[in-house]
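User: Batch of two.

Assistant: Item 1 of 2:
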Amino acid sequence: MRELTVYSIIVGVVLAVVFGAANAYLGLKVGMTVSASIPAAVVSMGIMRLLLRRQSVRENNIVQTITSAGESLAAGVIFTVPALILLEFDVSVLYITTVALVGGLLGVLAFIPFRKRFIEEEEEELVYPEGRACAQVLQAPDRKGDLPFILLGLVIGFVVRFFINVVTLIKGVPGVMIRGFTYLAMDLSPALLGVGYILGMRISSYILAGGLLSWIALIPLIGYLTGTPLDSENVAFEIWNTYIRYIGAGAVLVGGIISFLRNIKAFEAFVSFRTGRDDLPFWVVLVGIGGLVVFMALSPIFHFGFVGTVLTVLFAIIFVGVSGRIVGIVGSSSNPISGMTIATLVIVAFIIKKMGLTGQEGMIAALTTGAVVCIAAAIAGDTSQDLKTGYLVGATPRNQQIAELIGVIVSALVIGWVLILLHQAYTIGSKDLPAPQATLMALILKGSFGGGLPWMLIAVGGSIAVIFELLGINALAVAVGLYLPLELSTTIFAGALLRRFLNHPSGTVYASGVIAGDALMGIVAALLIVGGMRFQVPSIGGVLSLIVVMVLFILPLLRGIPRR
C-alpha cells in the first residue's frame, strides 16, 4: 500500500504551513491551540480521495503526520519565544527559525526510542484518545457501518464550534461565581466531551480531582489567608494566575519526575542503544542528537555554552518522555507543555545564575533553553499521537518518523516569518494578541533573575504530587488537572460520565467524529477571525448553552441511528 509518496509529502507540507500559521494566531490570541491531526486527516481525505483519486489510508496518514507537526511546532514557539518580545529584546527571524528547528528535530529524534513501549506495549494504560480518533477518521470510509457515526460527529462538533467561536451564539465557557468561595465553570467544547468519552472514568476522575483541588480547596483557602474577597470571576482567576499556576507547575514537574522514575525502563533504549525494528535505526537518533548538541554548543545564536547545551538536551529528553506519556492519557490538546516549560525555566534559571550568567544574557539563555524544551515536548506529544494512529492503521513507523522530520523542517522555516508578521500587525502583548503563556514566561524570567520567584508554591505543588503517588493515584493526571483551568477538567469528566450512562456500541467512533469536527472548525474559525469575519451576537446564556450542547452530543447516542 502506498505510504510516503510525493503526493502525500506535497499535500502535507502545504497543510502544515496553513495549519501552523492558523494555530500560531489562535494560541497568541486565546492561549490554546487546536490539535491538527484530526482536521488534517479530514482535509487530507478530501484532497487525496476526492481530488487526486488516491485511496490509500496510509498515504492519508502521512499527510496528517506532516501537517500536525506544523501545528505542534507553532504551539511550542508561541508559548515561549514571544516572552523575549514582551521583555523588549530584539528577536530575529533567524533566531526563531533556529530555535524551532533544533527543538523540533530534538523532539522527533528523542521520542523514537520510546515508541515501541508507549505505543505497542502499554495499550491499556496509554489510550492516546486523539490518535485513536484520528485512526477512526482515516478508516471510516473503509468501514461503512462507522461512516454515519463519524459524519454525525463531524457535523455536531463543527456546528457547535462555529456557534461558539465565529457567531458567539453559544456561550463557550458558562460559569457560576459562588461569592466568597470560588468560581466554577465548564468549557462547552465538543472535543473535550469526546476526549472524556474515550478516556473513561478512571483517568477523567484523576484530572477532575486535580481541578477541584485547585478551585474548591486551594483558591478559597488562599483567598481567606490573604484577605482577598472572592466576589468576582476576575479575582478567582487572579489567584489562579498568581498562585495556582506555580503550584501546578511544581506538581507537573514532580509528577513528571515520578513518572520518569517509575517508567525508567522506557528510557533504557538510550542506554542499550536500540530502537524498534521498524523505527529509524538508533545510530540515526544518536548522530542526529549529537549533531544538535555540537551545533548548540558552537552556535552564537545559543547563549549558554556546553553546560547549557547539556542541560537543554537532558531536560528535553526527560520531558519528551513525559509529554509522550501525558498525551497517551489526556490527549495532545490538554498536554501541559507550558507547565513543563515553567519547571524547566525555574530550574535552568537557578543553575544559570549560579554559573554567573545574569541580566539580559542570562534571561535569553534561560528562555532559549525553555523554548527548545517546550518545542521538543510539543513535537513529542504530537509524534506519539501520530505514531499511535499509524500503529492502528498498519503504517510503517520509520516512514512516519521521516514525515515528522519533514513537517518540522518546513514549519520551522515559516514560523519565524509568521510570528514577526503577527507582531507587526497586532502587537504581541496587546489586547488583540495577549499571548498569555508567553506573558507568564516573561514574568517567571523576571522573577528568576530579579528575585521573588515563589519557590514555596512550586514546592507545595511537588508535595501534592508525592502525596497522590503515595495514595496509589496517578500523580501526573492529577497534576494536569491541578494546572489546567477547571473548565477543561469538568468537561472531560462530563464526557466520561456520558460514556458510563450511554455506552453506545459505536460511541467511541462517534466521539472521534465529534473531536474531528470541533478541531476542524477550530482551524477554520482561526482563519475567519484573522480575516475579520467574526460576528458578535448576544449568546443564549450559560444554562441554555449547556443544555443545547449536551442534547446535541447525546442525541445520536439515543436514537436515530441503528445500533450495531
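Item 2 of 2:
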Amino acid sequence: MTNIGKLIKLMGPYKKDLVIACLLVAIETGFELIIPTMMADLIDNGIANADTAYMLGKGMQMAICALLALATGLTYARFAARAAYGWGAAIREKEYENLQAFAFSNIDKYETSSLITRLTSDITVMQNTINNGLRPLVRAPVMLVLGLLFSFSMNGELAITFIILTPILGIVLFTIVRRVAPMYSIMQKTVDDLNSVVEENLRAIRTVKAFVRGEYEEEKFGKVNEKLCQTASRTNSMAVLNMPLFQAVMYTCVLSLMFFGGLMILNAKLQVGELTGFLSYVMQVLNSMMMLSNVFLLLSRSLASAARISSVLDEVPDMKETEAPITKMKSWDIEFRNASFRYSSDASVDTLSHINIKIPQGHTIGILGGTGSGKSSLVQLIDRLYDAEEGEVLIGGINVKDYSLYTLRENVAMVLQKNLLFSGTIRDNLKWGNKDASDEELWEAVDKAGAGEFLRHFPLGLDTDLGQGGVNVSGGQKQRLCIARALLKNPKIIIFDDSTSAVDSATETLIRNNLHKLKGITKIFIAQRISSVIDADTIIVLHDGKVAETGTHSSLMAENGIYKEIYESQMKGGVL
C-alpha cells in the first residue's frame, strides 16, 4: 500500500475530482437505502389498508429517490473518469520524466519491453482500479454501516442472523486475495516477456525475412504467448472463485432470513412489508460486499503494478550534477587521468583500465583497436554517458562531473556507432542539432557530411519522410545524415564512433576532407579502417581496455607494434 500512497500523491488537481466522486457515491447509496424503508411502509400501510393516495405518494417518493440516485451515479462517473485518467496521465508523465533523467547505467537495469509495460499496461491497471473499484470501495462501507443500522432498527433478531454469516464472507475474501496477489506480479512479468519478443521481432523484421526465420519467430512468440495464457488462466481461475463462493454464502443468508422471518410472521412478530424491506437491505449489503471483494482483487493487481511503477520512480539517477555546476566551457582540451571504467560492479575485469591520454584543443585524434578493446566506452566517458569508476576525465582542465549536463552535452556532439533517425522528415531530424537552423545552414551541413549528392535527387528534398527509424534511406545515407545532424550543433568537440563504416572509400575521403577543414574543433575518430585515421594528429591504439600505443602514423609504423600489424593486414586485404 506504500507504493500506491506514493502514486496517489501524483494525483495533484485530480484529488478534488476523486473526493467529489466519493461524496457522490455516498449520496447515491443514501438514496438507495431509503427506498426499502419506503417499500416496507408502502406494503404494510398502503397495500394492507388499500390506501391508494398513500401508495401513490410513497411511489412518487421512491421514484424521486431512484432518479436522484441515477443522477448522482451518472455525475459520479464523470468525476471518476477525470480522476482515473488524469491520475494515469500524471503517473505516465512523471515516469517518463524520470526515464529521461536516467544514466545509461540506470537504463541497463531494465529491459526495454519492461519499461514499455510499466508505462502502459501497469498504469492502465491503476486507472482501472479507480474506474471499476472506487464506486464499490466507497459504496460497500456506507452500505454496510447504514444497512446494518436500518436492519437493526427494523428487526434486531433477524439482523443478528445476518451478522453471524458476515465473517464467513471476510474469510473467503482473505483466502482468495492471499493466493491471487503474488500471481499478478508473475503475470505482469510474463507480459514483459511477450512485449520483448514482439519488439525484437519488429525491430529486426528485415533480418528475420532475409534469413527466412518467420516460422522460428512464430514458434518463439507462441511459447511466450502460451505461457502468458496459462499464467493468466491460473490467476483468473483462482480469482473467479470469489463470485460463486460469495453467492453461496449470500443465498444461504437469504434462505436463513426467509426461514426465520417466515416463522416470525406466523407468530405475528413481523409484518410481510418489514421482511421484504429487510431482505432488500440484506441483498444490497451483500451485493456491495461482493463488489468489494472484486475491489480487493483489483487492489491486489494494482499493488503489483504500483510496485513496478514505483521502482522506476524511486530509481535514483547515477548521473548527478554538483550543487553549483559550471555552465560555460572556456576551453576544450581533453585529458583522461588514470581513468578506469566497468559497466557492472560485478564485472571481474575493467572495460577500461588506467587510461592516461591528453588531447589538445582543436586536434584530430584517431582511435583504433579490436572488437571489445573499449573504444566506444572510452569516448562515452567524455560527455558522461557513463562515469569513470576511478580516475578523472577533464575538459579544459575541469572534471566533466563539475559541468552541468546540458553544457557538457551541448558542446560535445557524438555520432554513435548505431545510427538512429526518428520518424518524420529529414528536416525534422537535422533540426535536432539546431532547432533554429535555416535551410541554408541545413544544406551546408548536409554537403559537409556528403549527403547532398543523394538528398538533391529526392523529389521532396529536406521534406522527405524517413519513416520509423529512417527505414527509407540506406545505412550509408543514414550515417551521413547523422553526421550532418551533429555538425549543426556547432560543437566544441565532435566524436565519430565508426560513423563512416557504411559508406564507400571515395565518400569517406570527401567527408574526412570536409571535417578536417573545421577549425578549432576537437575531432575524435573511432574506426576499424586505418584510412579513416591515417591523417590524424595523434592515433591511439587500444588493446584489452588499455592504451597500447600512441603516436602519428609514421611513428607507429616505426614501432613495429599492433598498429603496423593492423596496417599490413588491411593492406593485404585491400582495405585501404
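The domain at 2-314 is CATH 1.20.1560.10 (ABC transporter transmembrane region fold).
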